[in-house]
């Protein structure tokens, strides 16, 4: 059944599904535990790239009230079919958000994307080499970067962690540049020498950003809890077999809610920087 063709009144606005288009990320940000994700994912599935057919089947199960966010656990455009996936989701009426380093994208991709509307288009800017592999910042990349700046996409932002790569600093409009100085441990998954873990929260917890409804689609169809769950600690189901609504009715999600409400058992949220303690008499 195609559930994405109309607005589902039972799905509130504000929900997001992030798309992980590939298990292989070459960008190599030191503050991203992508290697842990790739290693863990390989123990479950040998599917490296999200195929168009699989994406189309998953998309048919997602209500249009759910925004589609091309980001996930790796650079989206390392999958050559990423632009086609964006176009499909846009054509079905989903709100579209992009988070990319631009690695893997080309001029034709950019021209096709210019024809679409986005809720957000965020470029993760290469730094001067402290945490990112700056070998990607060569002439073809710089040419594409200039084209993107000139495209004047209304929702575009350039997000930088640390010092911006000098070849890019002179290209980015000052009003569109956002600096983030602090790094997070991604719920304890990052090397503690780069970003130390927080002290676990006991008792009832809540997510400051409602990430329990900002889930992640993996190339084999599995759905993980959120973008902090690089090691697949909480898998809600699989969109190649489950309807979107069923992800939140199953035992796995109910268990997460119970543990957020104070029940015993492992809960990734307790180590997450986005988690907040709640009074014991407040139910989620």
From TrEMBL:
Cofactor(s) the protein needs: [4Fe-4S] cluster
Keywords in alphabetical order: Iron, Iron-sulfur, Metal-binding, S-adenosyl-L-methionine
Segments forming domain 4Fe4S-binding SPASM: 212-272
Name of one Pfam family that matches: SPASM
SUPFAM superfamilies in alphabetical order: Radical SAM enzymes
Record Gene3D superfamilies: Aldolase class I
InterPro entries noted in UniProt: 4Fe4S-binding_SPASM_dom, Aldolase_TIM, Radical_SAM_PqqE_MftC-like, rSAM, rSAM_sf
One Gene Ontology term of the molecular function aspect: catalytic activity
PANTHER family linked: PQQA PEPTIDE CYCLASE, RADICAL SAM DOMAIN PROTEIN
The protein, known as: Radical SAM protein
Organism: Bradyrhizobium uaiense
């Amino acid at each position: 059944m195609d559930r994405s063709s109309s607005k589902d009144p039972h799905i509130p606005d504000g929900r997001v599904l992030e798309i992980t288009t590939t298990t292989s990320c070459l960008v190599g940000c030191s503050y991203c535990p992508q290697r842990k994700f790739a290693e863990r994912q390989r123990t479950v599935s040998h599917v490296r790239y999200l195929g168009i057919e699989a994406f189309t089947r998953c998309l048919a199960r997602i209500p249009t009230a759910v925004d589609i966010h091309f980001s996930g656990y790796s650079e989206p455009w390392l999958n050559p079919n990423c632009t086609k996936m964006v176009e499909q989701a846009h054509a079905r009426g989903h709100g579209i958000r992009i988070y990319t380093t631009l690695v893997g994208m080309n001029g034709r991709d950019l021209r096709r994307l210019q024809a679409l509307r986005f809720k957000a288009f965020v470029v993760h800017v290469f730094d001067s080499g402290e945490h990112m592999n700056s070998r990607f910042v060569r002439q073809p990349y710089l040419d594409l970067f200039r084209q993107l700046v000139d495209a004047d996409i209304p929702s575009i932002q350039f997000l930088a962690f640390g010092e911006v790569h000098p070849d890019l600093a002179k290209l980015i409009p000052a009003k569109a540049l956002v600096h983030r100085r602090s790094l997070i441990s991604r719920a304890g998954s990052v090397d503690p020498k780069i970003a130390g873990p927080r002290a676990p929260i006991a008792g009832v917890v809540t997510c400051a950003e409602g990430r329990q409804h900002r889930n992640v689609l993996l190339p084999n169809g599995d759905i993980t809890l959120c973008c902090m769950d690089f090691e697949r600690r909480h898998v809600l189901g699989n969109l190649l077999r489950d309807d979107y609504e069923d992800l939140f009715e199953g035992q796995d999600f109910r268990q997460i809610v119970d543990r957020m409400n104070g029940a015993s058992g492992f809960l990734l949220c307790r180590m997450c920087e986005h988690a907040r303690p709640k009074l014991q008499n407040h139910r989620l």
